[in-house]
Write a structure and sequence with these properties.
Subcellular location (chain A): Cell membrane
Number of helices of chain A: 17
InterPro entries (chain A): MetI-like, MetI-like_sf
Membrane topology (chain A): Multi-pass membrane protein
Oligomer: heterodimer
Largest sheet of chain A: none
CATH class of chain B: Mainly Alpha
Main location (chain A): membrane
CATH superfamily of the largest domain in chain A: MetI-like
Protein name (chain A): Carbohydrate ABC transporter permease
Structural class of chain B: mainly alpha
Number of strands of chain A: 0
Low-confidence stretches of chain A: 1-38, 318-327
Strand content of chain A: under 5%
Number of strands of chain B: 0
Chain lengths: 327, 351
């Protein structure tokens, strides 16, 4: 516990954690002096009630637009225009959903987005963990420089590199019909790699995992080092399991970013067979401007996978982040 | 561990070089360990060397990708910004002309003002809402899981989806928002059709769509705050606000820095919402920096000028991020100092 305490309380500038100093933490007698049970119970009951009211109101504000979207997607076109506000459709129909899959190859888009989302999540979690761990827990010359490099790249507006990255992908040597000089073909364009590879080890992933690994105590690795464990074993067997919570969060964020990515797939994937859900949905917006039924049905379908991933992986987020290392 | 606790407070934090921390693992024996004064002069240990080599192996792929898809594009973009490159046709070297042109470009100043306005509204609002919902949900209760899921759902939706939803929601006559405002007697504005309210509407949508993600990051940080600190604060007679102010906030300083940095960087690059919802209107009130760059680069095909604009945006983002780093670090340190002073005073009074 002391390791965590001193790390949290200690310098926030990223230096070595200060050593745990003797503090006047509650002694057992002081704890025993406090009459705990009686006055608390009524107060805590009121507190619980207030808490439930607060989170319920917030939830309603957060969820209302989505419920409305869901209900609209189940209404026939006439009802959408007539009674926009009734939450429960008087004539529920799944026609809107059927037309989504009939009018456009939405299933195909779905698979494409799934591959891009999963590919981005796996590569970012893996490389981000390795890089973040090296920057947080390993001592080497140039560490501050490498970290500054990654951090500063986070501030580079994506639009700065968008055109050059497109040109690099198109001119990538020996791929997609290109010769050794990168001439003649389309390079990596129109492939899954065009979306996954450039962002496979995003600066955000490295930054995020570095911040996370820093909350884990150094002492664990040092103890293993004293016992003669190799560096890779220290990473794989000590820090990797403790970092599951952070990796789950990063994985969710990466998958979500990959799934919801819009502009980049639009630029590099021109083949209709390579279209993603978001690109398909956006063409929907153009084609069905006032036809809100199918549009909102598409929105619901496009949002489902990321929601499922979040619900499945919640367990890891609930697990204590720094708690795991302290106990 | 005994080595560490043997010298508490002997050196200021950060003054201990990395090598001395690693040293106990080396086969140097106890004689070495007792002499931390000779740090730095020591030849590298096998462990230290192995550590260094592993660090570069671990970083190899991220660095290689970084070089090809970040550094190289930056160079290319920088070169283009000094030309009149336009994808098709010939291009010539124009020197600093693009950059000097920016400062006489009235549209640039409009875009900058709009983006600054968005940032000023979005960053504090996003930070406060994400932190307060995280604090609210940092409980051990069954219902927490449900509410956390509910708060996260908007994050799940893509910008295309949320923008569509809000386009409908913000409709002046039939939109849910104005109808709800009507219930409490407020005549809602025309939102996206009103040059004064279009940007606040976009801020509202962005906060709604994004706060869940930052809430999750804050929750991660909150779970790392040791319960002992709260116990100690309660025994000192601290109320809920004081516990938040003197225990939660200082312990979260790192997380707050992460979240506020992300918010600032994101705010200056706002594009999707303005593009989908308003196309920059009404009356150019939602033309943002990235939207303007996009229009110049992909609309007018002035790639050179667009690249120069994007570098100016880059500099602006750096300045604000550094200012944020300055702002968030001393505050947390002063809070920490005050807390230490308080606990010291407590200790003295007990004696």
């Amino acid at each position: 516990m002391t390791a965590i305490d001193s790390d949290k309380v200690g310098s926030t500038t990223g230096g070595q954690p200060t050593k745990a100093r003797p503090q006047t933490v509650a002694t057992p007698t002081a704890l025993a002096d406090i009459p705990r049970s009686r006055p608390r119970s009524t107060r805590s009951r009121i507190g619980t009630a207030v808490w439930y009211v607060a989170v319920t109101v917030l939830s309603i504000i957060t969820i209302a637009p989505l419920i409305w979207t869901l209900s609209t997607s189940l209404k026939p076109a006439t009802e959408i225009l007539a009674g926009a506000l009734n939450l429960i459709p008087s004539n529920p129909t799944i026609d809107n959903y059927l037309s989504v899959f009939e009018d456009v190859p939405f299933g195909r888009y779905f698979v494409n987005s799934l591959i891009l989302g999963l590919g981005g999540a796996v590569t970012n979690v893996f490389f981000g963990s390795l890089g973040g761990y090296a920057l947080a827990k390993l001592q080497f010359r140039g560490r501050a420089g490498v970290f500054a490099l990654f951090l500063s790249s986070l501030m580079i507006p994506g639009i700065v590199t968008m055109i050059p990255v497109f040109l690099i992908l198109r001119g990538f040597p020996l791929l997609g019909g290109n010769d050794i000089l990168g001439q003649g073909g389309l390079g990596m364009l129109n492939s899954y790699a065009a979306v996954i590879v450039p962002y496979a080890a995003g600066a955000f992933a490295v930054f995020f995992m570095k911040q996370f690994f820093e909350t884990l105590p150094d002492e664990l690795g040092e103890a293993a080092r004293i016992d003669g464990a190799s560096e890779f074993r220290i990473f794989a067997q000590i820090y990797f399991p403790l970092a599951r919570a952070g990796m789950a969060v990063l994985g969710i964020l990466s998958f979500q970013a990959g799934w919801n990515n819009f502009l980049w797939p639009l630029i590099v994937l021109n083949d209709p067979d390579m279209m993603t859900v978001q690109v398909g949905l956006s063409s929907f917006v153009n084609n069905y401007e006032t036809n809100f039924g199918p549009l909102l049905a598409g929105t619901v379908v496009a949002s489902l996978p990321v929601l499922v991933v979040f619900i499945v992986a919640q367990r890891y987020i609930i697990e204590g982040v720094a708690h795991a290392g302290g106990k | 561990m005994s080595v560490q606790s043997a010298t508490p407070g002997a050196l200021p934090s950060g003054a201990v070089p990395a090598d001395t921390v690693v040293a106990p693992g080396a086969p140097g024996g106890p004689g070495r360990r007792s002499g931390p004064g000779a740090n730095g002069k020591r030849p590298p240990h096998p462990t230290a060397r192995q550590m260094r080599r592993n660090a570069w192996i671990f970083l190899a792929v991220p660095l290689a990708l970084f070089a090809v898809f970040m550094l190289l594009p930056m160079v290319i973009a920088a070169v283009i910004s000094f030309t009149d490159y336009a994808i098709v046709g010939d291009w010539t070297w124009v020197g600093f002309e693009n950059y000097t042109r920016i400062f006489q470009d009235s549209f640039f100043w409009i875009a900058l003002r709009n983006t600054a306005w968005y940032t000023l509204l979005y960053v504090p609002l996003g930070l406060v809402i994400a932190l307060s919902t995280a604090v609210l949900l940092n409980r051990r209760r069954g219902a927490v899981r449900l509410f956390r899921t509910l708060f996260y759902i908007p994050v799940v939706s893509s910008t295309v989806a949320t923008a569509t939803i809000w386009y409908w929601l913000l409709n002046p006559q039939k939109g849910l928002l104005n109808v709800a405002l009507g219930w409490i007697g407020i005549d809602g504005p025309a939102w996206l059709y009103d040059s004064q309210w279009a940007m606040p509407a976009i801020v509202l949508m962005s906060v709604w769509a994004g706060f869940g993600a930052n809430m999750i990051i804050f929750l991660g940080g909150l779970q790392g705050v040791p319960g002992d600190l709260y116990e100690a604060a309660r025994l000192d007679g601290a109320n809920a606000w004081q516990q938040f102010r003197y225990v939660t906030l200082p312990s979260l300083s790192r997380t707050t820095f992460l979240v506020s940095t992300l918010l600032i960087i994101g705010a200056f690059q706002v594009f999707d919402q303005a593009y989908v919802l308003t196309k920059g209107g009404p009356g150019n009130s939602t033309v943002t920096m990235v939207y303007y760059i996009y229009n110049k680069g992909f609309g007018a095909l002035e790639m050179g000028y667009a690249s120069a604009l994007s570098f100016v945006l880059f500099v602006i983002i750096i300045v604000f991020s550094l200012a944020n780093a300055r702002l968030s670090t001393p505050r947390s340190e002063s809070g920490e100092r005050r807390r230490t002073r308080r606990s010291t005073r407590k200790a003295v009074s007990e004696r």
